[in-house]
């Protein structure tokens, strides 16, 4: 049972990170800013997502 729960949570987390990357890509931020946010989200998913939610581009 632990494997199924872990796999489901991992899938949910992956969907959230992909959603955040898509939101960054569609934002009105500059190209370099978008690239930096996407790299932060890819290399530091947990911390990157929290920081992006607090300080990331809005809109």
Number of strands: 0
Q: Which regions have little confidence, pLDDT < 50, spanning 5+ residues?
A: none
- Tell me the major beta sheet: none
Distance between the termini: 40 Å
Q: What structural class is derived from the secondary structure elements?
A: mainly alpha
Helix and strand string, N-terminal first?
A: HHH
Estimate the strand proportion: under 5%
Shape: elongated
Number of helices: 3
How big is the Rg?
13 Å
Helix content: over 70%
| Whole-number mean pLDDT | 85
Protein name: Phospholipase D-like protein
Pfam families: PLDc_N
Organism: Halomonas ventosae
Subcellular location: Cell membrane
Topology record:
Elements: H1 2-26, H2 31-43, H3 45-55
Helix pairs in contact: 1-2, 2-3
């Amino acid at each position: 049972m632990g494997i199924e729960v872990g796999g489901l949570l991992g899938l949910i987390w992956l969907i959230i990170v992909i959603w955040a990357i898509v939101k960054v890509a569609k934002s009105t931020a500059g190209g370099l800013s978008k690239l930096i946010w996407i790299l932060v989200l890819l290399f530091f998913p947990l911390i990157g997502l929290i920081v992006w939610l607090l300080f990331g581009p809005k809109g």
